[in-house]
Amino acid sequence: MVRPARTLSAMGAVKTKRMPRAVREQQMLDAAVRIFGQRGYMAASMDEIAELAGVSKPLVYLYLNSKEDLFTACIRREAKALVEAVRAGVRRDLPADRQLWEGLGAFFAHTGENPDAWSVLHLQARTHGEPFAAEVTAMREEIVAFVTQLILAGAREALPQAFGCARAGRDPHDPDLPEREVAGLAEALVGAAESLAAWANATPGVTPRQAAGTLMNFAWAGLGDLMEGRPWAPEEEPPGPHVA
Amino acid sequence: MVRPARTLSAMGAVKTKRMPRAVREQQMLDAAVRIFGQRGYMAASMDEIAELAGVSKPLVYLYLNSKEDLFTACIRREAKALVEAVRAGVRRDLPADRQLWEGLGAFFAHTGENPDAWSVLHLQARTHGEPFAAEVTAMREEIVAFVTQLILAGAREALPQAFGCARAGRDPHDPDLPEREVAGLAEALVGAAESLAAWANATPGVTPRQAAGTLMNFAWAGLGDLMEGRPWAPEEEPPGPHVA
Amino acid sequence: MVRPARTLSAMGAVKTKRMPRAVREQQMLDAAVRIFGQRGYMAASMDEIAELAGVSKPLVYLYLNSKEDLFTACIRREAKALVEAVRAGVRRDLPADRQLWEGLGAFFAHTGENPDAWSVLHLQARTHGEPFAAEVTAMREEIVAFVTQLILAGAREALPQAFGCARAGRDPHDPDLPEREVAGLAEALVGAAESLAAWANATPGVTPRQAAGTLMNFAWAGLGDLMEGRPWAPEEEPPGPHVA
Amino acid sequence: MVRPARTLSAMGAVKTKRMPRAVREQQMLDAAVRIFGQRGYMAASMDEIAELAGVSKPLVYLYLNSKEDLFTACIRREAKALVEAVRAGVRRDLPADRQLWEGLGAFFAHTGENPDAWSVLHLQARTHGEPFAAEVTAMREEIVAFVTQLILAGAREALPQAFGCARAGRDPHDPDLPEREVAGLAEALVGAAESLAAWANATPGVTPRQAAGTLMNFAWAGLGDLMEGRPWAPEEEPPGPHVA
DNA sequence: TATGAATGAGGATTCATTCAT
DNA sequence: GATGAATGAATCCTCATTCAT
Question: Shortest CA–C1' contact from B60: which nucleotide?
Fold first, then answer.
């Protein structure tokens, strides 16, 4: 429940004059993420952002050039932060399903704690044309690649020949072959996660870990298994993703 | 007397003066959906919409009041159309998984055929504040309810006691009990579908049926089954969702 | 001393609403020429122009697109007006020197009556980059061509062999040969005229006809002749250029 | 310690800190003339000037007070330089026409070598209101006076009675009498020179001396003489204006 | 001497919206 | 029913100029 420092600074920042540039820039980005996340890119006004940042508009332009550049800077910063949060939440020495679970938990936790940032990444950036969408697409592809790799790792962990019989005559260890299929799956998983993020944040009493569990049930066990009483569960007693 | 080309509506309708109001309104909505879908809500200008509709701006205001109202009207019309398309694509007498498959097929087909409408619903409406987001949320909830009901039906079709053992001591026929869990699953499924819609439309050579199949594999069989060689498949030879 | 109608309209125009577009456009151009001529292109503000024109700023943009376009429209209108004034002031059946004299008179008269227009053409347009300078260059070239032709006509009227002996072995009737020389002369003449225009307008008591006479002395007779008592004079008693 | 390239003054002066004020000021004026000449007064930004001068903006203000003052300083410096160049190019012991020729040659040479300075004097200063225009007018009057005096000297050198017969009953040696006429002539000559300067600089292959020759032909011999085969020529074999 | 940090003021441009016919 | 004419209110962005060190 502790808000990270930068979210605080954007709000209560005493209008201390003459701060070093790097600091001011972060304050501006904080304010911009807030405003962009809440109003949307186009509806956000540079005036409002400058005011929330506690500086004059020209300074925003001096440091960040233009509304587009400011938005891009927001996207980049938040994309990086999200990817790092997910990575940090995963212990790479665990089995694939555990890694996925932890990653999802970290993802839900981070997006839950930074709703404006999530709005910027998930909604605003994708709604306003190539320059911005491309920025998120890059991040999304990073995550999709991460997930894809987990899925393939999971496949390798499962009985190779079992997988092999489904796609007869193909080496399941070859990561390239079911590529389009896997891409679709990863896409679906990430989409489901994005969607659940909104749901979890909007539904009171749903924790990131619960949301991650739900999605694992859905994704790993599948509805079919689930209905037949084989829900997914972490293998040992779960210490949980080590995120706050 | 032939009017110059410029005054012909770009939508293909000849600008015969004095059309019945209902027709004109539909032309305006057609134009609006196109512009909103392509430019985004804020970037869309009433000028452009009026021009594309082949009418003068005051007429747009006369019929539809304001930009907000126009946008809302677009959302409502397209939401209704999408829900109807999905409903129409499902034969209610089939088993739950088949119904789900057909529904997904219809969904991907409709969104694929109406990309601007889908952009309005999926991106624009959610990106521009409560009044509009609420409108889509209503539609979404309708679909989520539909899916929830299918999931529960599926559970009922599967062995009751098997499901029961997962959540020991609970009556699986009681649709309320695992409510939150099921709601989460439905949410995830719908989210995955929404996400795949964008992916399928953007990836050449992926048909609605393929997209539906990918998602069924993911959702029904689960990644676990999939990796062990048990993909989901329609029970008999599939005639496919009867969508165009 | 009578100001042309359009100069009046720009000023005292009663703010009669709802005028036809063509009229409003002229009012805007009148205002723009005034402001551009007095303040300069960059220092002129669209606000001020709109106010002087008696309309709101958006209307100026609706009709004339942008400051650049507005400026260009001013240049074009005034360039055309100036060229027409000069042409109208010349009777083509007179000898070359008389034509030149009349043309100069018309030029000084027109620039004297429209100082803002002259400032736009002579100063502002040339000071603000290619798009605009090119516009005036076109006009200037038209005038230079006109003058060049008069010079050559004058040469033909004078003893051909006399001219021929100066540039031995060349056919004086061939208009191409001393091209660069003639271009330089025309350039100098026009430059002298432009410069005298400012001088004549700034020196009280100097009429356009006097200024034209001075320049004819300078250009046609040359300082050398002048000093030796052979000033240029119209051949018969001069009725003067028939300009107001 | 070598400073990074970016902090090297673009004018070629290494940015050694703590320069004597006079030097720094000249660097600033150099930069300002360049920027003003190329961008125009209004479009020139103090930022750009400071950067080109290799100093910080506050220093420019410390030394030169304001944009207006800076511009004025540029005008003054360049006006002085131009007048000096012309004076230095003239040997006062030659006949009037030779002096004129040399002066013109020096003028074309100097403006050709300092196009930005010439742009500042000829275009920018005149285009931006009284305070600046007055500054150039002063210089111009100095030159016009110089030329006027040459014309009168030329008249005195020519046959007094010849001149006298043109303006019968007036003493040609009285420098005041044809005053207005002579002023007009000088004005025209200077204007022609200014105009030719731009033309000569823009026309490749035209040297200062050629430009001076063209103008002497025009001004001294006059078009009439020229057409009758009596071009002006320096009396003896010309050593040329002794300018660099 | 020299500068990084900061801003008040203003300019071009666009847009949703409304009269008057 | 339909439209040409018109605008109030913002929005992005830039610039000359000044502190505080």
Answer: F2
Q: Which nucleotide, over all strands, has the C1' atom closest to the CA of B42?
A: E15
Could you tell me the two tokens for A233? Answer: 């569960």
Which residues are within 8 A (CB) of D99 and not within 5 positions of it... i.e. 6 or more apart?
A: D90, D91, D92, D150, D153
Q: Is the torsion defined by CA of A46, A50, A51, A57 positive or negative?
A: negative
pLDDT string in tens for chain C (244-residue length): 333 333 334 344 445 678 999 999 999 999 999 999 999 999 999 999 999 999 999 999 999 999 999 999 999 999 999 999 999 999 988 888 888 889 999 999 999 999 999 999 999 999 998 889 998 988 888 887 887 787 777 766 654 544 444 444 444 444 443 566 777 777 888 889 988 988 888 888 889 988 888 888 788 776 666 556 566 665 544 444 444 3
d(CA A129, CA A123): 12
d(CA C140, CA A21): 53
- With tokens 């000829």, the residue in question is D122
Spatial separation of the C-alpha atoms in residues C192 and C183, rounded to whole Å: 14
CA of A18 to C1' of F21 (A): 10
CA distance C63 to chain D (A): 26
Is D103 in contact with D154 (CB distance < 8 Å)?
no
Distance CA D35, CA D52 (A): 9
* CA A107/CA A89 separation, integer angstroms: 8
Nearest by Cα to B71 from B138, B136, B143: B136
Cβ burial C37-67 (10 Å sphere, 16+ → b, else e) = bbbbbbbbebebbbebbbbeeebbeebbeeb
Q: What does DSSP assign to residue B45?
A: -
* pTM attached to this predicted model: 0.82
Local structure of D126: helix, strand or coil: helix
Eight-state DSSP code of residue D207: -
- Residues C185 and C201: their CA atoms lie apart, in Å, by 24
**CB hemisphere CA count around D101 (13 angstroms):** 23
Residues 6+ apart with CB under 8 A from B109: B85, B89, B208, B241, B243, B244
Query: Which one, of C158, C75, C128, lies nearest residue D227 by Cα?
Result: C158
Nearest CA distance, B16 vs chain A (angstrom): 36
The separation between CA B188 and the C-alpha centre of its own chain, rounded to angstroms, equals: 15
Helices (H), chain D: 21-39, 46-53, 57-64, 67-88, 96-113, 115-118, 125-127, 130-157, 160-166, 179-202, 208-216, 222-227
Q: Residue ranges of the alpha helices (H) in chain C?
A: 5-12, 21-39, 46-53, 57-64, 67-88, 96-113, 115-119, 125-127, 130-157, 160-166, 179-202, 208-216, 222-227
Six-digit token string for B216: 């069924």
- In the DSSP assignment, the letter for residue D65 is -
- Nearest residue in chain A measured CA to CA from B157: A227
Task: Determine contact, residues C149/C184, Cβ cutoff 8 Å.
Answer: no
Residue (of A134, A241, A147) closest to A192 by Cα position: A147
B133: which residues sit within 8 A by CB, 6+ positions away? B125, B126
Chains in contact with C, counting 3 or more C-beta pairs less than 8 Å apart as contact: D
Q: Which residue type, as a one-letter code, is found at position A14? A: V
CB atoms inside a 10 Å sphere around CB B134? 12
Which chain B residues are closer than 8 Å to A222 by Cβ? Answer: 218-226, 232
B184, B189, B195, B199 alpha-carbon torsion, rounded to 10°:
160
Residue D193 CA, nucleotide F18 C1', distance (Å): 44
User: What separation in angstroms does the CA of D82 have from each of D78, D103, D124, D135, D234?
Assistant: 6, 11, 16, 13, 24
Integer Cα distance of D239 and D19 in angstroms: 43
